[in-house]
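Lecture 7 notes: from sequence to structure.

We start with a single chain of 264 residues. Read the sequence below before looking at the structure.
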Amino acid sequence: MDTKKLFSLEGRVALVTGGSKNIGRMIAEGFLAQGAKVYISSRKADVCDAVAAELGPNCHSLPQDVSSVAGCKALAAAFAEKEPTLDILVNNAGAAWGAPFEDFPETGWDKVMDLNVKSPFFLTQALYPQLKAAASRDHPAKVINITSIDGIRLNPWDTFSYHASKSSLIYLTRRMAARLVVDQINVTSIAPGAFASDMNRAARDHGDAVAKNIPNKRIGKPEDMAAAAIFLASDAGNYVVGDTITVDGGVAHANIGTPSIDVD
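Now the structure, written as C-alpha coordinates:
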Protein backbone atom coordinates (compact mmCIF):
# COMPACT_ATOMS: atom_id res chain seq x y z
CA MET A 1 0.00 0.00 0.00
CA ASP A 2 1.46 3.35 -1.09
CA THR A 3 0.00 6.19 0.97
CA LYS A 4 2.55 8.86 0.12
CA LYS A 5 0.39 10.54 -2.52
CA LEU A 6 -3.06 9.91 -1.07
CA PHE A 7 -3.62 13.56 -0.20
CA SER A 8 -1.97 15.06 -3.26
CA LEU A 9 -4.02 17.17 -5.67
CA GLU A 10 -1.29 17.49 -8.27
CA GLY A 11 -2.80 17.76 -11.75
CA ARG A 12 -6.36 18.30 -10.43
CA VAL A 13 -8.58 21.23 -11.39
CA ALA A 14 -10.94 22.68 -8.77
CA LEU A 15 -13.67 25.30 -8.71
CA VAL A 16 -14.68 26.86 -5.38
CA THR A 17 -17.72 29.14 -5.21
CA GLY A 18 -17.54 31.84 -2.60
CA GLY A 19 -13.81 31.23 -2.81
CA SER A 20 -12.56 34.75 -2.21
CA LYS A 21 -13.03 34.79 1.58
CA ASN A 22 -13.84 32.88 4.73
CA ILE A 23 -14.38 29.11 4.43
CA GLY A 24 -14.15 29.18 0.64
CA ARG A 25 -10.75 30.81 0.78
CA MET A 26 -9.56 28.35 3.44
CA ILE A 27 -10.45 25.50 1.11
CA ALA A 28 -8.94 27.18 -1.96
CA GLU A 29 -5.66 27.78 -0.14
CA GLY A 30 -5.57 24.17 1.02
CA PHE A 31 -6.13 22.87 -2.50
CA LEU A 32 -3.42 25.14 -3.87
CA ALA A 33 -0.96 23.92 -1.24
CA GLN A 34 -1.61 20.35 -2.39
CA GLY A 35 -0.84 21.21 -6.00
CA ALA A 36 -4.27 21.82 -7.54
CA LYS A 37 -5.15 24.41 -10.13
CA VAL A 38 -7.96 26.37 -8.46
CA TYR A 39 -10.64 28.63 -9.89
CA ILE A 40 -12.40 30.81 -7.34
CA SER A 41 -15.73 32.50 -7.92
CA SER A 42 -17.60 35.21 -6.03
CA ARG A 43 -20.06 38.01 -6.73
CA LYS A 44 -17.60 40.90 -6.51
CA ALA A 45 -15.26 40.77 -9.49
CA ASP A 46 -12.65 43.15 -8.07
CA VAL A 47 -12.36 41.18 -4.84
CA CYS A 48 -12.27 37.85 -6.67
CA ASP A 49 -9.56 39.10 -9.02
CA ALA A 50 -7.47 40.53 -6.17
CA VAL A 51 -7.63 37.37 -4.07
CA ALA A 52 -6.75 35.15 -7.03
CA ALA A 53 -3.71 37.33 -7.71
CA GLU A 54 -2.74 37.17 -4.04
CA LEU A 55 -3.01 33.37 -3.92
CA GLY A 56 -0.59 32.89 -6.80
CA PRO A 57 -0.32 31.74 -10.40
CA ASN A 58 -2.29 28.53 -9.89
CA CYS A 59 -5.35 30.45 -8.70
CA HIS A 60 -7.71 31.97 -11.25
CA SER A 61 -10.67 34.30 -10.88
CA LEU A 62 -14.11 33.55 -12.37
CA PRO A 63 -16.43 36.11 -10.78
CA GLN A 64 -20.14 35.31 -10.97
CA ASP A 65 -23.30 35.59 -8.91
CA VAL A 66 -24.63 32.02 -8.60
CA SER A 67 -27.81 32.87 -6.72
CA SER A 68 -29.89 32.13 -9.83
CA VAL A 69 -29.98 29.26 -12.31
CA ALA A 70 -28.90 31.70 -15.01
CA GLY A 71 -25.88 32.64 -12.92
CA CYS A 72 -24.99 28.98 -12.40
CA LYS A 73 -25.15 28.37 -16.14
CA ALA A 74 -23.05 31.47 -16.82
CA LEU A 75 -20.33 30.31 -14.42
CA ALA A 76 -20.33 26.83 -15.95
CA ALA A 77 -20.01 28.33 -19.43
CA ALA A 78 -17.14 30.58 -18.34
CA PHE A 79 -15.37 27.60 -16.77
CA ALA A 80 -15.89 25.46 -19.89
CA GLU A 81 -14.10 28.11 -21.93
CA LYS A 82 -11.05 27.61 -19.68
CA GLU A 83 -11.02 23.88 -18.95
CA PRO A 84 -12.41 20.72 -20.59
CA THR A 85 -12.61 18.82 -17.31
CA LEU A 86 -13.36 19.54 -13.64
CA ASP A 87 -11.99 17.25 -10.93
CA ILE A 88 -13.38 19.05 -7.86
CA LEU A 89 -16.39 21.32 -7.40
CA VAL A 90 -16.92 22.96 -4.02
CA ASN A 91 -20.40 24.45 -3.61
CA ASN A 92 -19.56 26.89 -0.85
CA ALA A 93 -21.39 30.14 -1.69
CA GLY A 94 -24.15 30.68 0.85
CA ALA A 95 -26.33 33.16 2.70
CA ALA A 96 -28.11 33.49 6.02
CA TRP A 97 -31.04 35.55 7.30
CA GLY A 98 -32.32 36.15 10.80
CA ALA A 99 -35.66 37.63 11.86
CA PRO A 100 -38.32 36.88 14.47
CA PHE A 101 -40.87 34.24 13.49
CA GLU A 102 -43.69 36.80 13.39
CA ASP A 103 -41.80 39.04 10.97
CA PHE A 104 -39.71 36.61 8.93
CA PRO A 105 -39.99 37.86 5.31
CA GLU A 106 -40.43 35.93 2.09
CA THR A 107 -37.31 37.62 0.75
CA GLY A 108 -35.29 36.16 3.62
CA TRP A 109 -36.68 32.73 2.83
CA ASP A 110 -36.19 32.82 -0.93
CA LYS A 111 -32.70 34.37 -0.90
CA VAL A 112 -31.34 31.74 1.47
CA MET A 113 -33.08 28.73 -0.04
CA ASP A 114 -32.12 29.75 -3.58
CA LEU A 115 -28.43 30.21 -2.88
CA ASN A 116 -27.99 27.45 -0.30
CA VAL A 117 -30.06 24.68 -1.91
CA LYS A 118 -31.05 25.42 -5.48
CA SER A 119 -27.71 26.78 -6.65
CA PRO A 120 -25.56 23.79 -5.59
CA PHE A 121 -27.89 21.49 -7.51
CA PHE A 122 -28.07 23.55 -10.69
CA LEU A 123 -24.37 24.47 -10.73
CA THR A 124 -23.47 20.80 -10.40
CA GLN A 125 -25.94 20.02 -13.16
CA ALA A 126 -24.42 22.70 -15.41
CA LEU A 127 -20.90 21.38 -14.79
CA TYR A 128 -21.88 17.72 -15.11
CA PRO A 129 -20.18 17.28 -18.53
CA GLN A 130 -16.85 18.54 -17.17
CA LEU A 131 -17.14 16.49 -13.99
CA LYS A 132 -18.01 13.34 -15.92
CA ALA A 133 -15.13 13.92 -18.33
CA ALA A 134 -12.68 14.09 -15.41
CA ALA A 135 -14.04 11.06 -13.58
CA SER A 136 -12.71 7.51 -13.55
CA ARG A 137 -12.98 4.52 -11.25
CA ASP A 138 -9.47 5.09 -9.87
CA HIS A 139 -9.86 8.86 -9.63
CA PRO A 140 -13.52 9.88 -9.13
CA ALA A 141 -14.51 13.49 -9.66
CA LYS A 142 -15.64 15.16 -6.43
CA VAL A 143 -18.50 17.48 -5.54
CA ILE A 144 -18.27 18.88 -2.00
CA ASN A 145 -21.25 20.80 -0.66
CA ILE A 146 -20.61 23.10 2.29
CA THR A 147 -23.50 22.59 4.68
CA SER A 148 -23.48 23.43 8.40
CA ILE A 149 -23.93 21.86 11.79
CA ASP A 150 -27.11 23.98 11.82
CA GLY A 151 -28.48 21.42 9.40
CA ILE A 152 -27.90 18.79 12.10
CA ARG A 153 -28.84 20.60 15.31
CA LEU A 154 -30.44 23.90 16.27
CA ASN A 155 -28.74 27.14 17.16
CA PRO A 156 -30.52 29.72 19.34
CA TRP A 157 -31.02 32.26 16.58
CA ASP A 158 -34.18 32.84 14.51
CA THR A 159 -32.55 31.69 11.27
CA PHE A 160 -35.46 29.66 9.99
CA SER A 161 -34.55 29.51 6.31
CA TYR A 162 -30.87 28.90 7.09
CA HIS A 163 -31.66 25.87 9.22
CA ALA A 164 -34.06 24.54 6.60
CA SER A 165 -31.59 25.14 3.76
CA LYS A 166 -28.65 23.40 5.38
CA SER A 167 -30.62 20.34 6.46
CA SER A 168 -32.04 20.22 2.93
CA LEU A 169 -28.59 20.38 1.41
CA ILE A 170 -27.34 17.54 3.61
CA TYR A 171 -30.10 15.30 2.32
CA LEU A 172 -29.73 16.61 -1.24
CA THR A 173 -26.06 15.62 -0.99
CA ARG A 174 -27.14 12.04 -0.36
CA ARG A 175 -29.61 12.04 -3.24
CA MET A 176 -27.14 13.55 -5.69
CA ALA A 177 -24.51 11.07 -4.53
CA ALA A 178 -26.80 8.13 -5.26
CA ARG A 179 -27.26 9.33 -8.83
CA LEU A 180 -23.78 10.59 -9.67
CA VAL A 181 -21.76 7.75 -8.19
CA VAL A 182 -22.69 5.68 -11.26
CA ASP A 183 -20.65 8.21 -13.26
CA GLN A 184 -17.73 7.97 -10.80
CA ILE A 185 -18.60 11.38 -9.33
CA ASN A 186 -18.55 11.35 -5.52
CA VAL A 187 -20.81 13.86 -3.77
CA THR A 188 -20.19 14.63 -0.10
CA SER A 189 -20.60 17.54 2.29
CA ILE A 190 -18.73 19.29 5.06
CA ALA A 191 -20.74 20.71 7.97
CA PRO A 192 -18.62 23.41 9.64
CA GLY A 193 -19.13 24.61 13.15
CA ALA A 194 -17.64 27.79 14.57
CA PHE A 195 -15.11 29.29 12.16
CA ALA A 196 -14.28 32.98 12.09
CA SER A 197 -16.08 34.48 9.10
CA ASP A 198 -18.34 37.29 7.97
CA MET A 199 -21.32 34.97 8.40
CA ASN A 200 -20.17 33.72 11.79
CA ARG A 201 -19.39 37.01 13.48
CA ALA A 202 -19.72 35.46 16.91
CA ALA A 203 -16.72 33.22 16.25
CA ARG A 204 -14.90 36.00 14.42
CA ASP A 205 -15.37 38.71 17.06
CA HIS A 206 -15.82 36.68 20.27
CA GLY A 207 -13.85 33.53 19.61
CA ASP A 208 -12.78 32.96 23.21
CA ALA A 209 -16.35 33.19 24.48
CA VAL A 210 -17.68 30.87 21.77
CA ALA A 211 -14.87 28.39 22.45
CA LYS A 212 -16.10 27.85 26.02
CA ASN A 213 -19.16 26.02 24.63
CA ILE A 214 -17.16 23.82 22.24
CA PRO A 215 -15.99 20.45 23.56
CA ASN A 216 -12.59 21.02 21.89
CA LYS A 217 -12.42 24.42 23.65
CA ARG A 218 -11.44 26.39 20.55
CA ILE A 219 -12.99 27.65 17.34
CA GLY A 220 -11.97 26.17 14.02
CA LYS A 221 -8.72 27.11 12.31
CA PRO A 222 -8.25 27.44 8.55
CA GLU A 223 -6.15 24.27 8.62
CA ASP A 224 -9.11 22.32 10.06
CA MET A 225 -11.34 23.25 7.15
CA ALA A 226 -8.63 22.79 4.54
CA ALA A 227 -7.77 19.34 5.90
CA ALA A 228 -11.34 18.04 5.66
CA ALA A 229 -11.74 19.38 2.12
CA ILE A 230 -8.39 17.96 1.00
CA PHE A 231 -9.34 14.55 2.40
CA LEU A 232 -12.61 14.45 0.46
CA ALA A 233 -11.12 15.94 -2.72
CA SER A 234 -8.07 13.70 -2.87
CA ASP A 235 -7.69 9.97 -3.43
CA ALA A 236 -7.81 9.58 0.35
CA GLY A 237 -11.56 10.17 0.14
CA ASN A 238 -12.34 8.05 -2.91
CA TYR A 239 -14.50 5.59 -0.98
CA VAL A 240 -16.56 8.26 0.83
CA VAL A 241 -19.89 8.78 -0.92
CA GLY A 242 -22.91 10.78 0.22
CA ASP A 243 -21.61 11.40 3.73
CA THR A 244 -21.50 14.66 5.69
CA ILE A 245 -18.38 15.26 7.75
CA THR A 246 -18.83 17.56 10.72
CA VAL A 247 -15.86 19.83 11.41
CA ASP A 248 -16.92 21.51 14.62
CA GLY A 249 -14.79 20.49 17.58
CA GLY A 250 -17.50 18.12 18.79
CA VAL A 251 -20.48 20.46 19.04
CA ALA A 252 -23.09 18.64 16.97
CA HIS A 253 -22.49 15.12 18.18
CA ALA A 254 -21.73 16.06 21.77
CA ASN A 255 -25.12 17.83 21.84
CA ILE A 256 -23.71 21.09 23.18
CA GLY A 257 -25.41 24.17 21.76
CA THR A 258 -23.39 27.12 20.53
CA PRO A 259 -24.24 29.66 17.85
CA SER A 260 -22.56 28.84 14.56
CA ILE A 261 -23.85 31.95 12.79
CA ASP A 262 -24.65 35.43 14.00
CA VAL A 263 -27.20 37.30 11.93
CA ASP A 264 -28.62 40.76 12.52
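The two ends are 51 Å apart (CA to CA). Keep this in mind for problem set 3.
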